[in-house]
Write a structure and sequence with these properties.
Elements (H helix, E strand, L loop, with lengths): L1 E2 L2 E8 L2 E6 L13 E3 L2 E3 L6 E2 L5 E3 L16 E7 L2 E5 L20 E11 L3 H9 L4 H4 L18 E3 L2 E6 L16 E8 L3 E8 L5 E12 L2 E11 L6 H20 L17 H19 L1 H8 L9
Antiparallel strand pairs: 1-2, 2-3, 3-8, 4-5, 5-6, 6-7, 8-9, 10-16, 11-12, 12-13, 13-14, 14-15, 15-16
Helix pairs in contact: 4-5
This protein binds FE2/S2 (inorganic) cluster and fe (ii) ion.
């Protein structure tokens, strides 16, 4: 896999999930072409074996020689949560947490981990698309479409505990024109910065709720790999495939328009309007975080933890 332009190999070595640079110290072959042997990862060019810390522990060609000190692959902090492997490229930046997910461990809920998908766009744009309130009428006709929805409500947007939080209550008129099976209702967002979203939807049609949780992994500046988990109450007559198919349809509608945005990175030259409030606030916080990151971890952590309660409610 690739994270922020860095190629990594992720492996399960004897029950421990490890992440290290995807490059053998010897002749730079990709370790992801290797083989797991017990609790080591063997490079499949000349057979050097790496332990869970990324250290070479065996060189088959000359086992009687001492192993060179530089014979190692940089390994990274990693943790498994929500069935995903989370990697921190710089362990000294220990000021961030794994993003919030309201229902993962909730009793009686069924979590469906949808296959990941890669889009040719920046992770920021994927985030903005997922939280965009004014594109339904144009991008999702027949799925999320409603004519009343081309003038979206403007929510209050708060910053709390590293999350952007906002909620929208679509106008009641839209109930009359909803497509069948359209999962429209009250939307509550808790978005762990910078690329995760926990969207709880309380459906108009039967007042039940479900959660769409997503995170966008920045492969590099122009590609992102996206993960989606659908969490809803356990029921007999509610098959996974129906939820997966619906989300796939929505994604297929979004993908071409989002990949058409150029450049893939967000730009200061774009024209923003008042109904872009969520995106505007997101960009503002991202910018503040980026500037603070240049100063160092403490400045970054302070900006990440700022609490701002929007007075326009
Ligand atoms: S390149 Fe990996 S063992 Fe030689
Ligand atoms: Fe969309």
């Amino acid at each position: 896999m690739t994270l922020l332009g860095r190629k990594l190999v992720v492996a399960n070595l004897g029950g421990r999930i490890v992440a290290m640079d995807d490059r053998c110290a010897h002749r730079f072959a990709a370790l992801s072409k290797g083989t797991v042997v017990g609790d080591t990862l063997r490079c499949n060019y000349h057979g050097w074996k790496y332990d869970t810390e990324g250290k070479v522990v065996n060189i088959p060609a000359c086992p009687e020689q001492p192993i060179p000190k530089k014979a190692c692959a940089t390994s990274y902090d990693c943790e498994v949560k929500y069935d995903l492997v989370w990697v921190r490229l710089d362990s000294s930046w220990d000021c961030t947490d794994i993003p919030y997910f309201s229902e993962w461990d909730a009793p009686g809920m069924r979590n469906l981990v949808v296959p990941s998908y890669t889009w040719n766009t920046a992770a920021e744009r994927r985030w903005e698309n997922f939280t965009d309130l004014s594109h339904f009428a144009f991008v999702h006709p027949g799925t999320l479409y409603d004519p009343a929805y081309d003038r979206p409500p403007i929510p209050a947007v708060d910053r709390v505990e590293g999350e952007m939080r906002f909620a929208i209550e679509p106008p009641p008129e839209m109930l009359e024109n909803l497509p069948e099976n359209c999962p429209m209702g009250s939307f509550t967002y808790r978005c762990s910065m910078p690329f995760s979203i926990n969207l709880k939807i309380q459906l108009y049609r039967d007042a039940t709720a479900f959660t769409l949780w997503t995170t966008s992994c920045p492969i590099d500046d122009t590609h992102c790999r996206n993960f989606l988990i659908i969490s809803r109450a356990q029921k007999d007559d509610d098959p996974d495939h129906a939820h997966a198919a619906f989300q796939k349809l929505v994604l297929q509608e979004d993908q071409p328009i989002i990949e058409s945005q150029w450049p893939a990175e967000i730009s200061m030259d774009e024209v923003s309007i008042v109904t872009d409030k969520v995106s505007n606030q997101y960009r503002k916080w991202l910018r503040e975080l980026s500037m603070a990151a240049l100063e160092g971890k403490d400045a970054f952590a302070a900006v990440l933890r700022t609490q701002v309660i929007d007075e326009r409610r």
